[in-house]
């Protein structure tokens, strides 16, 4: 029996809905991994190749906490292509006013909000994140 193997790379702005999308993907049978260090990607690709039934549907959630995720995306694309699996990117975005409202409602700090003793505004953090993720958004 052939297994329909899929790898989704879920990325985008903080507050744009990655957690909600992750929960929906889990509901339809995806195993989700949030912010796996890129050093562990080769081991993940090996696991996908070794046990295609168990790791048929994988979603990797990537964000800006560790910097620009474009290198990680390229590593995943190259690694999965080598085992005959394509990786699809889903980039989630939202208007700045929506993101600011969401951070205000949840009272969470933006991941790029700066040091606790020298915080930057949510609007400035969103602008920095947009700039950091611009190459990823275009891919």
Walk me through the structure.
By secondary structure, this protein is an alpha/beta fold. The protein has a single domain, classed as Rossmann fold, CATH 3.40.50. The protein is built from six helices and six strands. It has helices spanning 18-27, 41-50, 70-82, 96-106, 122-132, 134-138; strands at 6-12, 31-34, 57-61, 87-92, 114-115, 118-119. A four-stranded parallel sheet has the order 2-3-1-4. The longest helix is centred in the middle third of the chain and has 13 residues, at 70-82. The protein starts with 5 loop residues before the first strand and ends with a helix. The relative contact order is 0.22.
CATH-derived topology: Rossmann fold
H/E order of the elements?
EHEHEHEHEEHH
Cα(first) to Cα(last) distance is 33 Å
The secondary structure category is: alpha/beta
* Biggest sheet record: 4 strands, parallel
How helical, in percent, are the residues? 40-55%
What is the number of strand segments? 6
Indicate the CATH architecture.
3-Layer(aba) Sandwich
- Rg (CA only): 16 Å
Which runs of at least 5 residues are low in confidence (pLDDT < 50)?
none
CATH homologous superfamily designation: P-loop containing nucleotide triphosphate hydrolases
Shape, please? Answer: elongated
Strand fraction band? 15-25%
Q: Please identify the top-level CATH class.
A: Alpha Beta
- In DSSP terms (H or I, runs of 4 or more residues), the helix count works out at 6
Mean pLDDT: 88
- Strand order across the largest sheet: 2-3-1-4
Summed up, the domain count is 1
């Amino acid at each position: 029996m052939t297994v329909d193997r899929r790898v989704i790379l879920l990325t985008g702005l903080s507050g744009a809905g990655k957690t909600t999308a992750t929960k929906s993907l889990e509901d339809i049978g995806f195993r989700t991994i949030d912010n796996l260090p890129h050093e562990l990607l080769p081991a993940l690709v090996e696991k996908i190749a070794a046990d295609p039934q168990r790791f048929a549907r994988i979603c990797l959630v990537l964000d800006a906490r560790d910097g620009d995720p474009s290198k990680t995306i390229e590593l995943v694309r190259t690694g999965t292509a080598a085992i005959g699996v394509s990786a699809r990117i889903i980039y989630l975005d939202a208007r700045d006013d929506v993101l600011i409202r969401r951070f205000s409602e949840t009272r969470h700090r933006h991941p790029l909000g700066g040091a606790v003793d020298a915080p930057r505004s949510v609007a400035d953090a969103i602008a920095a994140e947009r700039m950091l993720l611009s190459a990823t958004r275009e891919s």
